[in-house]
Amino acid sequence: MELSWPEIKMVAGYLADSRHHDAGFLLWRAGATYSALDIVRAVASCRSAGLHEAAEAILINVAERTDRQAVLNAAAALGDAGRHEDVAFILSAATRTTE
Known about the structure:
Blueprint: H1 8-16, H2 20-33, H3 36-48, H4 52-63, H5 68-80, H6 84-98
Helix pairs in contact: 1-2, 2-4, 3-4, 3-5, 4-6, 5-6
């Protein structure tokens, strides 16, 4: 599952080519629209590829969703996948967005 997000190669390529806006759009879309399981897949792929800032960008965009249940679902799916640091990150980011 580690590199199972199809867009990981595209994101890595955009970042390597300094196309940060294009990479950012894909990361925003992942965080803003993906299902909980797809978020786990995308974050795990980014982390496995060494793209930690990309993974955190996805998590920040998840945390900013107005659908708070979707945020909790993503956090639960990350926890089920053993990604406890990502759970802590998403919950911390979600707390900051509600203050």
